[in-house]
Amino acid sequence: MKRKRVVDIVKEIVLPFIKDKDIELVEVEFVKEGEHRYLRVYLDKESGLSLDDCQEVSEYLSGALDKLDPIKENYFLEVSSPGIERPLKKDKDFVKYKGRFVEARLYHPLNGEKIIKGKLLGLKDGKIIIERQGKAIVEITRDKVALIKLLMNFDQGV
Predict the structure, then answer these.
(1) Which CATH class is domain 6-80?
(2) Cβ-based neighbour number of residue 27 at 10 Å
(3) What residues are paired with 123 via a beta bridge?
(4) Sorting pLDDT into bands at 50, 70 and 90, what band is 133?
(5) If DSSP codes are grouped into helix, strand and coil, which group holds residue 50?
(6) Could you tell me where in the chain the CATH 2.30.30.180 domains are found?
(7) Which of 10, 27, 46, 154 is deepest in the core (most CB within 10 A)?
(8) What number does CATH give the domain 91-156?
(9) 57 pLDDT above the threshold of 90
């Protein structure tokens, strides 16, 4: 039997716990940075994620992971919000944040540029649609995008 990935195990633990708390699981990452490993769990909440929300999930997850013991090496557990400039990962993110300013970092240049900034118009037929200043519309297939994230823009009240 194939060994489950740490991120999949964490998702299986966290999702039932947060289901009735109106908390969304944004992402789980298990990464090595320098000599340390980090298990990062990013959460969001429509009404705003509080420090108490993060602490409650962290304590629950820590206890569940201690019992299950799926991670043999030492690691730091971090539970937090993805922040104001959060990455957009799921289809519903492109609906929820339509009209907001974004930055798309591309794997390869498009018309000589690897970074595209502008207003998110949405996602259509697998293409991210961004309106740049000057009303130029850019359509980028998701497989060409390394990262797309919200941008803090004071003009839009963010």
Answers:
(1) alpha beta
(2) 16
(3) 128
(4) confident
(5) coil
(6) 91-156
(7) 10
(8) 2.30.30.180
(9) yes
- What pTM was estimated for this model as a whole? 0.76
pLDDT tens digits, one per residue of 28-54: 999 999 999 999 999 999 888 999 999
**Calculated CA dihedral for residues 50, 56, 59, 61, nearest 10 degrees:** -90
Nearest to 75 by CA among 34, 14, 32: 32
How far CA 141 is from CA of 22, 76, 85, 89, 119, in Å, comes to 31, 35, 21, 13, 16
Inform me whether the pLDDT recorded for 18 exceeds 80.
Answer: yes
**Cα distances (angstroms) measured from residue 138 to each of 17, 63, 158:** 40, 46, 23
Task: State yes or no: pLDDT of 155 exceeds 90.
Answer: no
Alpha-carbon distance of 140 to 134, in angstroms, equals 18
CATH 3.30.300.70 domain extents, the chain: 6-80
